[in-house]
Amino acid sequence: MKTVQIMAMLNAFRTEQDGVTAIEYALIAALIFGVIVGSVGLVGDSLKVLYDDVAAKVTDAVS
């Protein structure tokens, strides 16, 4: 390849924005995933306590 062609390819690579956009979307998706996992973890603990309480009350009512 000629030096001019290599320089043109390097310049096109440097100004390309598609890869940057894909990385930004991946970071946003990872952030949303982290928030969902954290929320489910917090809600999951609360639900376990609630279900255990209900199960105990049902057991007491049956016996």
TrEMBL record:
Annotated source species: Aromatoleum bremense
Protein name per its UniProtKB record: Flp family type IVb pilin
Keywords: Membrane, Transmembrane, Transmembrane helix
Domain of life: Bacteria
Keyword Membrane: yes
Membrane-crossing segments per the record: 21-43
Keyword Membrane among record annotations: yes
InterPro entries linked to this entry: Flp_Fap
